[in-house]
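Predict structure. Chain length: 281.
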Amino acid sequence: MKKPALLTASLLALALLGFGYNAEAQGTAAQAPTAKSADTATQSKENTDTAAAASDTSAKEEAAAPVNEGGDSIHYVFKQKFIEGDVIWMSPVLVCLLLGLGVIIERVIYLNLATTNTNKLLAKVEDSLKSGNLQGAKDICRNTRGPIASIFYQGLERSGEGVDIAEKAVTSYGSVQMGQLEKGMIWISLFIALAPMLGFLGTVVGMIQAFDAIEIAGDISPSLVAGGIKVALLTTVFGLIVAMILQVFYNYLISKVDSLVNSMEDASISLIDLLVKYGKK
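Prediction complete.
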């Protein structure tokens, strides 16, 4: 009786040990996925926080972006530099630019209107003189705009007094017309010279302000002298830019005037030749 009892007890003990081992194994297996799930949840939370922070940063950058919109445009940069250069010293240079451009526009329009087809005018005048119609030649010159037509009219008007008198009239009135062509050019020259002078004046004043700031502070600090030096440099640059712009247009106008004067001289010689040829005395 004892052996079966001992065998049964041994089997029960082995069964209990096996059950305990299986329970412990199942508990470990269940704990491992739980820990893994917790780690996954923690990592997911961290990723969510990172994404939220990145989203907030992007939102802030997008909100700040419109503030700098247009900051790279030429107009914006010019306005900022104009203000930084001190309006007191930049404004006179700007006035020189505006006045100079106003005179230039007026001169360009006047000189273009003064340009005449000289060959066509000479042909019409020659046809009238060939037919003996002096009054018709005068009417042609009177109805044609430009200095050359005006010179022709004065020469034809005095042609009855002789070729020499007509030649003197052409020469004298040619000088008058030349003065009309060069009218206003002196003002452009003034603005070309005045703009950089005003810029240099701003430079000197800016440097004086910089040294005054150093003297008051008793120490050389970049933040103290930066303002005065910036005013000095910006006014000088602006003055030189204005002078260069006006100089380009001034040279164009001078070349236009020279071309018209040469045409006037050639046309005057041709008119005198016509008067001599057709014997208008």
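Summary: The mean pLDDT is 75.
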